[in-house]
Amino acid sequence: MMRVLVMVALLVGCGPKAPPRELTGRWPQMAYDYDATTKSWTVYGELGDVYQEIISVYAVFKSPQWRAARGNRDAYFRGLEGEAREQIMVQARAETMGPYEVELLVTTWERRENDLDKGDRSVWKVRLIDEAGNEIKPLEIVKDKRPAFTIRSDYPSFGDFATAYIVRFPRDKALLGDGVKRLRMRISSVRGFLAMEWTAEQ
């Protein structure tokens, strides 16, 4: 079996270290500390008016770097070695071939407005924006129905009043690639919009 990742297990639990964030879409040669990698791929946005917060969002882009760190962490926690561990990493890499995914941790002042999973009937419109300015509509937005403690173990930014959503975007849109420097997300309604951005790092 082809080895899909090298120099990974020793990096779990060795202190917070994250890779330079890249938007090439390539599978990394090394998996870094999961918590630090998740922090690196988490961006925050909020919208408010004079009197109250309207919405706040943490968005985690599930990049190849993030998936490698997640697979490595899971294998470590389960005590997997050899071929069993390799299978976890193969599965993690395979997931990068599917739709682009973003985990949204959403808190709204008005609970009824926390309805991103209603599709076109939602108060909010979610779009990814590529480097050329093209807007990409999600394939679907679904609630992450795992227990709160499980979600929080993956995403420490998950607050007590937040709702977690998994947003999937079509893979046929060239959002990532060599030379890509930034990827943006906009969440908007008739009350305004919030904008978030992932930028490539050297």
Descriptive overview:
There is one protein chain. The longest helix has 14 residues. The chain starts with 33 loop residues before the first helix and ends with a strand. The strands form two sheets. It has a five-stranded antiparallel beta sheet. Strands 5-4-8-9 form a four-stranded antiparallel beta sheet, with no helix packed on it. The chain is built from four helices and nine strands, in the order αββααββββαβββ. Helix content is 21%, strand content 29%. The chain has one domain. The protein has 202 residues and is α+β, with helices and mostly antiparallel strands.
Topology:
Elements: H1 34-40, E1 42-48, E2 53-61, H2 64-77, H3 82-95, E3 100-108, E4 125-129, E5 135-136, E6 140-143, H4 148-154, E7 163-169, E8 182-189, E9 192-199
Antiparallel strand pairs: 1-2, 2-3, 3-7, 4-5, 4-8, 6-7, 8-9
Helix pairs in contact: 2-3
